[in-house]
Amino acid sequence: MRILIVDDSAMMRAMIKRVVALADVPVDEILEAANGVEALAILESHDVQWLLTDINMPVMNGADLLREIARHDKWRGLGKVIISTDGSTTRRAEAAALDVYRYLEKPFSPEVLRDVLTEVVGAGRS
Amino acid sequence: MCSLKLSELVGPEATDVLRGAIADVAEQSFFMAADPCADDRLRDLASESDAWLAATVRFEEAGCAGVVSCLLPDTLARALFDAFNGRDPLDAPPASDEVFDLVGEFANMVCGAWLTRTVNGPAFVLSPPVVQASARDAALDASASARVVVSLNDLPLVVVARA
Q1: Binary contact (A109, B28; C-beta < 8 A)
Q2: Complex ipTM, two decimals?
Q3: Does residue B102 belong to the interface with chain A, where contact is any CB pair within 8 Å?
Q4: Residue B1 is assigned to a structural domain of this protein
């Protein structure tokens, strides 16, 4: 399984990577992007199964990234998780319409993220 | 039309919401308790730190805008970094840009948590955090629509919100 983490904070990306390692989930590779444009370039060149993305980012934000992904059939099977400080009902409804699997609101404890990752891996196996 | 009313940013209720957002961020992601800190204690704690940082996030929500700023000594910034990353004190200290990134993310989380609880409906846009060195007096003299002072591990944190 290959995961792509999209967040403009390198520290947040590092934290998520650390939780993935501690969660002991069978992930083959973790890729990183600092914004939606970088994420799309990685998706074009790699077979990614799960996307964990922030919303508020420079260059291209997470909402625009998800809308772009939704426009392409080739990414129809991509699992999507939002990890964002924006917990507004509008944003959550928007995410649901874009087939987002889970919406994780910052702040969160590492244990909550670990549980989401475990669930994600389980969903990937089914 | 802006759904964020100035009245929601002024007064005890707004300050309580901001305090709650700070406490949740500190506890959930940084494993620190946010203790109330009166201005007298702020001045005592602040006197122990010469180097300060200011992390500012600008928000826009349905046509209105404002900022949330976190003002903190460099010692707290590095303590937050260690807590978030589980850094061993014996490891090499983090680079300044890493500390700035982390403090920016802290401010981002505080602003987002506060807005989610304050407007709870419309989506909002947060600018990338701007983190820079700051004078200690900027923290001591900061005034705003909402202002909260707490201590984290006996280190002071001032958070101000302006619409």
Answers
A1: yes
A2: 0.90
A3: yes
A4: no
Q: Is B93 helix (H, G, I), strand (E, B) or coil?
A: coil
Distance CA A98, CA A104 (A): 15
Nearest to A85 among B84, B111, B122 (CB): B111
Report the CATH fold assignment for A2-108.
Rossmann fold (3.40.50)
- pLDDT, tens digit (0-9, with 9 covering 90-100), for A107-123: 998 899 999 988 887 76
The answer to whether B145 and B14 have CB atoms below 8 angstroms apart is: yes
Output the pTM of the full model.
0.92
Let me know if residue B72 belongs to a domain.
yes
- Cα-Cα-Cα-Cα dihedral sign, residues B148, B151, B152, B155: positive
Where residue A24 falls (left for φ over 0; alpha for ψ -120 to 50; beta otherwise) is left
CB contact under 8 A, A11 and B101: yes
Q: How far is B83 from chain A (nearest CA, A)?
A: 11
Q: Which residues of B touch A105 (CB under 8 A)?
A: 116
